[in-house]
């Protein structure tokens, strides 16, 4: 058995329990990974609060992880036992159900196509902070068919996705000018991530922004107001459902290990840096506290959990 966080009914964070769960057995194309760190995303608490996807209880929440391969199925070719990997395990079967239990556990199974080798310069916590948010951030640029040299206006530059959108705008997509919104305490932080200008939304309305932009990337679902900063005909992307403006196109992440592999040069060169909220990393035992913080909507980058339970495991156990 292993320790995992789970819930048996929908509800507030108090439905979460820490208890014993069986260690999953990897199928032919899957890895068994000892989780060393995990990250929380808003989907984890939205899914706990109400039935967004069909789920069988108990549900173990968590999509993101970084860890060490401890066993593998017979068809796995890219990874070996002992490899350090990271990925987003949010993958659905034909019935729309998540295939796997979540990452707030000591062990998870994951298809090898969903993970990538952890860049050597990143800690497990840094690597775990990336997959879901960075896959979302990248997909938004693809949905917009963003062209190098264009200008970008990012609504919500301080959050888990926004902090990566700012960095990727320059590092991967060649944006010429990047502006992001945030509240007063995060203005300097958002500038340090590479924004050329920062709009403090507590002081400045979108109508007061002088420029018009080639791409509006709204991470908080405020397009009914923010759309005024987009040039006529410019793409407007939202990542919250449903879109809040007739011109806004909803963009959803693509879960892929290859996408993470392609990011490796950017990560190893330091052009793209994981951003871990300074209240963390939280201990595995403090997951409820970590959720309480994320659910305030005020996170600064990613809320990360360290897998610190000391359980000994050998590959003979599966
Ligand atoms: N479609 C997809 O595939 C996909 C994938 C990932 C996430 N999402 C969704 O996208 C949303 C953002 O995700 P996330 O992980 O970035 O969430 P998050 O980390 O919880 O975002 C928190 C950030 O939002 C900022 N914020 C809140 N109100 C704001 C406002 N009025 N103007 C500017 N910034 C504001 C906060 O900054 P301040 O404290 O400065 O206000 C905070 O830094 C969530 O709803 C999530 O469910 C969708």
UniProtKB/TrEMBL annotation:
It holds the Pfam family ADH_zinc_N_2. Residues 11-305 form the Enoyl reductase (ER) domain. SMART domains: PKS_ER. InterPro entries: ADH-like_N (IPR013154), AOR-like (IPR044626), ER (IPR020843), GroES-like_sf (IPR011032), NAD(P)-bd_dom_sf (IPR036291). Keywords: Oxidoreductase. Signal peptide: none annotated. It comes from the Eukaryota. GO terms for molecular function: oxidoreductase activity, acting on the CH-CH group of donors, NAD or NADP as acceptor. Belongs to the zinc-containing alcohol dehydrogenase family. Quinone oxidoreductase subfamily. This is Alcohol dehydrogenase superfamily, zinc-type.
């Amino acid at each position: 058995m292993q320790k995992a966080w789970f819930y048996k009914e929908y509800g507030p964070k108090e439905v979460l329990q820490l208890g014993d769960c069986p260690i999953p057995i990897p199928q032919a194309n899957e890895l068994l990974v000892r989780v060393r760190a995990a990250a929380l995303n808003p989907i984890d608490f939205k899914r706990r609060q109400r039935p967004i996807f069909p789920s069988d209880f108990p549900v173990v929440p968590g999509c993101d992880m970084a860890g060490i391969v401890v066993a593998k199925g017979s068809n796995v070719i890219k990874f070996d036992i002992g490899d350090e990997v990271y990925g987003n395990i949010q993958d659905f079967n034909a019935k729309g159900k998540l295939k796997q239990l979540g990452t707030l556990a000591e062990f998870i199974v994951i298809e090898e196509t969903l993970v990538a080798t952890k860049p050597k310069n990143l800690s497990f916590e840094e690597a775990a902070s990336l997959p879901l948010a960075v896959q979302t951030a990248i997909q938004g640029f693809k949905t917009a068919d963003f062209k190098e040299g264009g200008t970008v206006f990012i609504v919500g530059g301080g959050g888990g996705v926004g902090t990566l959108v700012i960095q990727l705008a320059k590092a991967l997509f060649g944006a010429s000018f990047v502006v992001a919104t945030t509240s007063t305490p995060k203005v300097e932080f958002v500038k340090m991530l590479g924004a050329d200008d920062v709009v403090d939304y507590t002081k400045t309305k979108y109508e007061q922004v002088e420029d018009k932009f080639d791409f509006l990337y709204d991470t908080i679902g405020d397009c009914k107001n923010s759309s005024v900063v987009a040039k006529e005909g410019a793409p407007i992307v939202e990542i919250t459902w449903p879109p809040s403006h007739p011109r806004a196109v909803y963009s959803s992440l693509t879960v892929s290990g290859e996408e993470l592999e392609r990011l490796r040069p950017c990560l190893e060169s330091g052009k793209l840096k994981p951003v871990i909220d300074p209240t963390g990393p939280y201990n595995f035992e403090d997951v409820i506290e970590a959720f309480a913080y994320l659910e305030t909507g005020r996170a600064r980058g990613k809320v990360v959990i360290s897998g610190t339970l000391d359980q000994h495991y050998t590959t003979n156990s599966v």
